[in-house]
Amino acid sequence: MDVNYRRNTESDYTEKIEQLYKNFDYSSNSDYYWGEPELSMLYGSPLYEAASPSQQKALNHLYWALNYYLIAATETNTILFNEVTANAFFPFDDYEVLCHALDLETNQERYHVRAFHTIGSQTELALMGETVFHCPRSTKPKEMDKTLAAFKGMGGRTSSPLGMQVYTISISNSPFLASQYYTARGIGNLNLKNKEYSFSQLYKTLEKKGEFIPAPTAVSRYHLLDESFHTATSQLMSHEIYKDFPQPNAWEKYIGNQTIHSLQTDVFNGLSTTLPGTFGGNLMPMVYKLLQTPLFSMSKQEALLMMEKCFCQEHQGLHVAAKYHQRLLSDIRKFLEGLDYLSPVNREMRLMASSGSVEKAVANNIREFKQFSRSVKR
Asked: Which residue segments constitute the domains of the chain, with CATH numbers given?
């Protein structure tokens, strides 16, 4: 932990991210892809295939924005739980460096969230004249459309408000649960890396060729490097620190297992057609609104017809989503090896494994689209 903390302190990735987002100008970055084409909204769908080159590029930019809005939501959860778990370890003399490391990571997350929201909202305004995706949360969480639950972050998606309070109190009073929160955070780190590695590779390719690097691509690269320290913390906390304390009791084992079970049922529970490679759902209300912006200028009826074509049949985008799903599943299984308190269903991520087929995705999409189309026709 000492080495990881020292290296993170000495790095300047957060400062580079801050400089990039404060100087971001969409027009200077608009002519370039920010990630590989497959990391584009509705990639491979009839909409994407019929889109003009400029529209396809816009869908690539909107993927970046929306993907990082979802990451920002989860990092907002992380800010809270870093502080809660640090308080659980603070009374113990041997964990001073750990608490300082979590404080540093929390501060870095705040810069990350600002960067993602700044670049994302400016991108939306430039492309559509309004922010369709930015901050869709209601001031009353109960009123949030359940199809937009991803904007509550991974932590918010897995618990009711009461459940979140119980979990927060539990981890603040149990060093075991405080350390095992980092099992869930580690899974979040892997989910981030699953796509961000691709953005980072594009950065390295452009850098090697001496070509222009779009600011969002650079933010992705530096964010991956920043998060590498956080990933190391998650690994150490979830696999080593808990051994310093007594064996978990029945309640602690239950909470630890329920956390991973909820991630499988509420987060990693299917393929996204809208954002291949993410687990944010299809966000149909937002897609419907997107199609009616000046970017596509569709009528309400045209938008519904296009959505039916995109969501209710198999296409290449779903196979891209399945590829990222399988890769993440493999990474999570490796990460969870050796955590004997987890049941086989959770340690092997069996529920997640059962949800990754293209056939299931199409069936789920058809059901979801029927419900959505009925709601907008009322």
From this structure: 2-377 (1.10.620.20)
pTM exceeds cut of 0.85: yes
> What whole-number distance in Å separates Cα of residue 263 and Cα of residue 155?
9
First-last CA distance in the chain: 57
Instruction: For residue 16, give every residue at least 6 positions away whose Cβ sits within 8 Å of its Cβ, in sequence order, or none.
Output: 218, 222
Amino acid at 37: P
- Exposed, middle or buried: residue 293 (CB in 10 Å: 0-12, 13-18, 19+)? middle
DSSP structure class, residue 158: T
What are 64-120's pLDDT values in tens digits? 999 999 999 999 989 989 988 988 888 887 888 998 999 999 999 999 999 999 999
Token pair, residue 237, equals 């906390």
Q: What is the pLDDT of residue 145?
A: 56
Question: How far, in Å, CA of 353 to CA of 346, rounded?
Answer: 11
pLDDT attached to residue 142: 45
Mean pLDDT, residues 165-172 taken together: 83
Q: Which of 33-42, 159-168, 178-187 has the lowest mean pLDDT?
A: 159-168
Q: What are phi and psi of 232, to 5 degrees?
A: -65, -40
